[in-house]
Write the structure tokens for this entry.
Amino acid sequence: MTDGFINDVEALAARVPDGAKVALVKTTGGVPMTLVRALIRRNVRGLHLVCVPTGGLAVDLLIGAGCVETLETSAVTLDEFGQAPAFGRAVRAGRLRLRDATCPAVYAGLQAGEKGLPFMPLRGLLGSDVAANRADWEVIDNPFGDNDPIVCLPAIVPDFSLVHARSADRTGNLYIGDTREVLLMAHAARETLATVEKIVDGNLLDDDALRAGVIPSVYVSAVAKAKGGARPLGLPGGYEVDGKHLALYADMARDDAGFTEYLDTFVFDRKAAAE
Amino acid sequence: MSAVASVPGSVPGTNSDYRLEELLIDLIAGLLEGSRRVAVGVSSPIPGSAALLARHLSGGGMWVSVLGSRHLQSFTDGGVEIFDLAAQGRIDAFFLSGGQIDGSGNINLVGIGDYPAQKVRWSGSFGSAYLYYLVPRVILFRLEHTRRTMVDQVDFISAPGTSPDNVYRQGGPYALITDRCLFAFDRVHQRFRLESVHPGHTLEEVRDNTGFDFDLAQDSGPLPTTPGPDASRLALIRGEIAAAIADPYPKFAAEVLGLKGNLT
């Protein structure tokens, strides 16, 4: 059950301690960018970031700002705007503990988490360098088969899933539509912190058309209103990604000086960040 | 064969009857023939167009899902659904690429140099370390065919081309398509076999630009040239297919396939 509404994203960010394991959805799923910028301003350190199942601008920003110690992801990319520059620099400098994965492995780990299970088996992976570099994964022989090796992935239980939803009602139910990986994230995490486009009257669960796309409040710890809270990324059912801004970021973040200038302009100057 | 394929980004209609992209769409559609269900990943306008063309040519019997599109995919269970379908054997064909691809069909989407602090780091393995094992026809698609990309051994195996007999493996590489040629993958010999070179390209040039050994589809005689789309196929690609692929890829539909009209 929620502690109530905190109409201040900075207060939401203050709830995430250094060293927390934090899950963020892929770029198209409604990334809480306003909250991510607030986390950078709060100078959070040592995050274990779980990308569900990939990362983009938010992840590159957090890495470049020095907030991330461990990165668990299937990919980090700016999509049509190219490779993620801060991620690339951090990898080359050996500044990240990398846990390279494959998309369904991230989902499977979270599914183990939502079921309270210690692990989930997954096909594929055998003989890849992805698996070879994951000391936390184990190969077992399928107990129901005959000489059938299968990889077991430990449960992923984020301390926090950070989400941006289309709306919330006053009991803390969140409407996310069909981006069901966000529902999975909320199920698996100890707490979900949400920003939302708007607060609506009534109970979202009363509407049959919405109900299947709702994260029930039982998973949600706190909600803050942040209109446009996924910008410059897009929000399903809301708005499109701001391609011009992404191109600007890709250009500015090519070197450390440009990245710092981007942070100064769009993260630390809140007026610009709210654009 | 009058066509000389143009390079991506060149102006449509100049200096060729059709563009390389259009030849590739036609070629890939042929490779998809007989598939019941085809899925296409994100950032893949050419495979996406090819899947839509194959669906059209199938008379509508083929199920196609283009990830990243609102209207060309039907998933309601989030990002995990494609992987669950694949594991159940419900996806017949999919596309993968690689920063490096080697002669054993291993692909590398992670980077160059010693992992983890690699000197060149790419995005990551995405779903490859799973789908490569489970989808029967994985078509490898890479529009840079050089010794930089087609290597003897990849630096990092995002997904292996083949697996030992006791590994559960329903799928793997089926073909490798580049800007120069078409290879088939021979799973028994675990090697690529050159099937045809695209118009304007030669076997010698393919050898010079390939870092791995490969077999030839025929021991003697001239190597086949990849056939290009005929006029009616080309009209289809530039018309109906371009209009459909404009949903996820408006820029590609307009600039490459010449789709005119309002773009969203």
